Amino acid sequence: MSRPAWIFGLIVIAVLIAGLYRAKFGARDAAGEIAAIEAEIKDAEQRKALLEAEVSHLARREWIEEYARKELGMAPPSAEQFITPDDLDARLVSRENSGAPGSARP
What we know:
Elements: H1 3-58, H2 61-72, H3 85-98
């Protein structure tokens, strides 16, 4: 075998060894990145479960009613707040005549 062919063979082997070495460490780095991403996914799933539990708690009717009463000063409507359509016409006419704010005047 000639000397240039032998040197070329050694260079090819050296390049293959370097490529294999680099691929090995690239795979190790990729495995580390995958593990980090899987940990992030697990944390995100736990946060999601916590938020879903909080939403289901805050969406309960009892909690909304309690919040509306305490924080917003709301209460269930009383009987005086309900009127029939016939009474509505009478109220609108009386408001127009009295000039009350919110009356139906243009």
